[in-house]
Amino acid sequence: MMAEMLRCRERFAPQFPQYAKRPVLPLTLSDEAPEADELYDAMRVIVNEVHCAYVQEYGAHCSWRRAGNEADLRPLLLQPHLQVFDAEPEDWTSLSALDYDEGPLRAAARAYWRETGWDHAPGPPSPDYVWVCVYKPRSGVYNEDDGELDYGGSLVGFAIVADRDGDEEPEALAHLWVARQARRAGHATLLLAEAERRFPALSTVERPVTQDGAAFLVASSPRLSAGLTRRA
Fold first, then answer.
1. Rounded to whole angstroms, what are the CA distances from 218 to 42, 174, 226?
2. pLDDT above 80 for 168
3. In the chain, what percentage of residues exceed pLDDT 70?
4. Quick one: pLDDT at residue 31?
5. Rounded to 5 degrees, what are φ and ψ at 150?
6. pTM above 0.70, yes or no
7. In angstroms, rounded to a whole number, what is the distance separating the alpha carbons of residues 19 and 13?
8. CATH top class, domain 80-96+120-232
C-alpha cells in the first residue's frame, strides 16, 4: 500500500498548490526494494503534503469557544466567527518538523506563504503585530457545565495589522489571506472591515501585494487603496 501511495504521489504532487511556485521535493529511496522504515518516512512526507494542500484550499482545522446559551448554538453555527490575537498562541510552535503538527494560525501562515511565494511566512501574533482571524464553523455543541458554546471548523482567513512606528496603534495592513475554496464568500471583506473598525489608525498597505489583493483593496477600501495606487 505504501509503495502504491508513493507511485501516486509522483503523479499527483506536481498538482499540489504548494508547488505552484516551487519544485516538487523528490523522495529518494533505495535503488533496491526500500526498507519499511524508508517507506514509513516517505508516508509522513506525503501526509504533510496533503495537509498543506488542504489548508491552502479549505483552511486549517481548529476549535474555539464562544459565550452563549443553547438557543444561540444554531444561529452562530451559520455565521463566520471573528477572533483577534495579540499574543502568540500556545500551539504556534510545531510539535515536530512536519507541518501537520502545527497549530491553525501557523498552518494558515504557511499556506499564505506558499501561495504568494513571499520570502517569509507571517510571524506569530504580538501586541504590535495583531492577527484578525475568521473561522467557518462546521459543528457545535452547548457545554452545559460551563454555560458556553464549543465549535469546531476551520480557520479560513486572516488579516494582520502592524504597528511600525511604535505608538501602540497599528497603522499598516501587513497581510490579508483567505483559503482558496472560501473566497468570494465575504470573508476578506469581513476581515478588512473588522480590522478598520478595531484599528482606526490603519492607513497604509505594506508591499508586496498580489494583483488579486490590490484589486480587492481598490474595490473594498478607497482609503487604504489610495496610498497603494500612489506608490504603484
1. 45, 16, 8
2. yes
3. 96
4. 63
5. -110, 125
6. yes
7. 8
8. alpha beta
